[in-house]
Specification:
By secondary structure, this protein is α+β, with helices and mostly antiparallel strands. It contains two helices and six strands.
C-alpha cells in the first residue's frame, strides 16, 4: 500500500497449532461471525460493527471480516478506525493479515495480491 492510498497500516502474524486446533480456530471464528457485532478484549481497545466478508478461498480454509476499532483517550469521543482481517489456515499454521485505515474516510483493505503471495509461500514451505 502507498501513502497515496490513505493512512493504512498492515500486519501479518503466523501461529502454529496442532491439526485439530488449527481447524477448530477457523470454525469457531466463522461461527462467531454469524452473531458477533461488538466485543471488548481483555486488553486493548473495544471493537464494534463486526461484519463477515466473503470467504477469500485461500489455503485449506479462510475467513475474512471487517470491524471498527474504538480508540479513545480520557473519555473523548472515540476514533472509529476501520480494520479488515483475513485469517488463512495452511495445514497447522494460521496466517492472519490485518489492515487499518486511520483516515476515517474509507475502508481498510488487506491487499489480496499480498495475501495470495504469502499464502503461496507458506503452502510451498509446508510439508
Amino acid at each position: 500500500m502507498s501513502a497515496l492510498e490513505g493512512d493504512h497500516g498492515g500486519s501479518m502474524a503466523l501461529a502454529s497449532y496442532t491439526p485439530d486446533q488449527a481447524a477448530e480456530i477457523i470454525a469457531t471464528l466463522r461461527t462467531a461471525l454469524r452473531s458477533c457485532t461488538a466485543f471488548t478484549p481483555v486488553y486493548g481497545f473495544a471493537y464494534e460493527g463486526v461484519t463477515a466478508l466473503p470467504d477469500p478461498g485461500l489455503g485449506n480454509e479462510s475467513v475474512s471480516f471487517r470491524l471498527l476499532q474504538l480508540v479513545s483517550l480520557d473519555g473523548e469521543e472515540p476514533l472509529k478506525v476501520p480494520v479488515t482481517v483475513t485469517a488463512v489456515r495452511v495445514g497447522t499454521t494460521l496466517a492472519t493479515f490485518q489492515s487499518a485505515n486511520t483516515r476515517r474516510d474509507g475502508q481498510a483493505v488487506v491487499p489480496s495480491d499480498v495475501v495470495s503471495k504469502q499464502v503461496t509461500k507458506l503452502t510451498d514451505a509446508t510439508p
